[in-house]
Amino acid sequence: MNDSDVKLGYIGLGNMGAPMAKRMVDWPGGLTVFDIRTEAMTPLAEAGARLADRVSDLAAADIISVTVLNDEQVREVVGELAGLGKPDTVMTGGFNKQVFSTFTGRATQIEPTKQKKIIASVDAYESDFGVLKITPNRFQRARDVLVLWMEMWALAFLNGRRMVSVPLAKTGDSDRRMLLSEYALVARNEKGSGGVFDNTTS
């Protein structure tokens, strides 16, 4: 992930927060700030920061810094942000993907005569909380259903090992190369996703 892909947020622009936030204004991915006092945000806006009308407007930021008065305010801010999960993808094993496709709310089977095939699957589920894409995942436990907000997940590559092509010893006329990469899965907000575990698989 490049710096320009990472969006910063800052909450609390008091005597400590304002100078710290000001140092982030030139960040390539941009900075969004919030304070309950409009006058505290004005100097940051003049310096180039984006202003938020409420705490929830910072939910799209990848990294959010909070400088407030006490632990109670920290819990209040974090609690408001954590409740803004926007799941958009459901990952499940093959059996439970078939279960999704038997939901009674799906459309009638489609049978295009020219293509000579029957389409009877559900790839999107429109719930009270939005549309969820249903994706089979053969790498996860078959009995689990993961409900994910994909924006809150990312890959972090080890420096110097992001899909590096390394030449190997030459044998005759053949050229061989090794693809080298090391990375980890990053959860930007663990509470932005959830799951339903230990479902039946038969």
Notes on the protein architecture:
By secondary structure, this protein is an alpha/beta fold. It folds into two domains: 3-82, Rossmann fold; 89-196, no CATH class. The protein contains four helices and 13 strands. The strands form four sheets. A five-stranded mixed beta sheet has the order 6-7-5-8-13. The chain has a four-stranded parallel beta sheet with strand order 3-2-1-4, with helices on one face. The mean pLDDT is 83.
Spell out the blueprint of helices and strands.
Blueprint: E1 8-11, H1 17-22, E2 31-34, H2 38-47, E3 50-51, E4 63-66, H3 71-82, E5 89-92, H4 94-100, E6 124-127, E7 130-136, E8 145-148, E9 153-157, E10 164-167, E11 177-180, E12 183-187, E13 194-196
Parallel strand pairs: 1-2, 1-4, 2-3, 5-7
Antiparallel strand pairs: 5-8, 6-7, 8-13, 9-12, 10-11
Features:
Rossmann fold, 27% strand, 17% helix, 4 helices, flat, alpha/beta, 202 residues, 4-stranded parallel sheet, 2 domains, 5-stranded mixed sheet
Give the overall shape. Answer: flat
Mean pLDDT: 83
Query: Which parts are unreliable, with pLDDT below 50 for 5 consecutive residues or more?
Result: none
From the alpha carbons, calculate the radius of gyration and give it in angstroms: 24 Å
Q: Please bin the fraction of helical residues.
A: 10-25%
Strand tally is: 13
Distance between the ends: 40 Å
Q: Give the assembly state of these chains.
A: single chain
